[in-house]
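dumping this here so i dont lose it
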């Protein structure tokens, strides 16, 4: 058994992260978070919105993920995400402003559809802020 697993996170825009990691966790759409170690049983699962956390070179690395699929094998995990970014690429000030704007907009939204769209923005902003903690 090897002591690392190849993690690759890809979005339609391109590769977000690729490295050997010693362990990782990611959110699934229906079964909470999966914890993955090298030599894991193969699995294919839809992703939920949440945080991917992994040990990379002895330190914790955090990424956001918004939907997609994860393919797990004994020596690799490929995450095909609708959206994803590393915590280091996030701008706290911009996210905080977007969150504030969305919270103000939800108060004046009229239709249910508008409220749902704004709530999705609020949830995404809060998740991104959580990644920065």
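and the seq i came up w/
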């Amino acid at each position: 058994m090897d002591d690392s697993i190849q993690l690759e996170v890809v979005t339609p825009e391109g590769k977000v992260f690729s490295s050997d990691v010693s362990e990782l966790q990611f959110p699934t759409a229906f079964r909470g978070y999966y914890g993955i170690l090298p030599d894991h049983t193969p699995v294919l699962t839809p992703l939920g919105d949440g945080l991917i956390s992994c040990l990379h070179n002895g330190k914790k690395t955090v990424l956001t993920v918004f939907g997609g699929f994860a393919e797990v094998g004994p020596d690799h995990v490929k995450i095909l995400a609708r959206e994803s970014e590393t915590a280091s690429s996030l701008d706290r000030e911009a996210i905080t402003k977007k969150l504030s704007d969305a919270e103000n907009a939800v108060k004046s939204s009229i239709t249910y559809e508008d409220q749902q769209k704004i709530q999705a923005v609020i949830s995404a902003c809060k998740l991104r802020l959580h990644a920065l903690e």
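Strands lie at 5-11, 14-21, 23-27, 33-36, 43-56, 59-72, 76-86.
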